[in-house]
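Subject: for your reference before the review

Hello V.,

The reviewers asked for a structural picture of the protein, and I figured it would be easier to keep everything in one thread rather than splitting it across files. Below is the amino acid sequence we used in the manuscript, unchanged from the supplementary table.
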Amino acid sequence: MKTLSIVKASVLAASIAMTLACGYSSKTTPAAPGTMPAIATLNPDTATAGSQAFTLTVNGSNFSSKAVVNWNGAAMSGTTYVSGNQLTVAIPASAIETAGSVQVTVTNPAVAGTGQYGSGGTLAETSPAMTFTIN
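And here is what came back from the structure prediction:
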């Protein structure tokens, strides 16, 4: 009887050890760097302080279909994807009331992973800034 208890205890201990040794791993893959957008030109690249709203055309490369134009770091909700090389965005008159410089960037958003447990995907990437001048 004592031998049977020792065998049961040994089997139980071995089962626990194997379960713990295997561990649980979600086997996730971290997000990879995304595609870095680049701005080549802004059209127009200047505006007169106090003038009316206008449409800014951003020309460059590697723009994703969900890319967003940022105006001094603030994402512009009205960004329109034209192509992988061009975006347009409506700039309100309130954004050009005062003379100065504005930093314009483009952000390609992160893409969620589609692997098991949601692994993979890409990180958001933001282009180097280009200066827009308000005279």
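For the response letter, the relevant points are probably these. DSSP finds one helix and ten strands in the chain. Strands lie at 38-43, 46-47, 54-61, 68-71, 74-75, 80-83, 86-91, 100-108, 125-126, 130-134.

Happy to draft the paragraph if you're swamped.

O.
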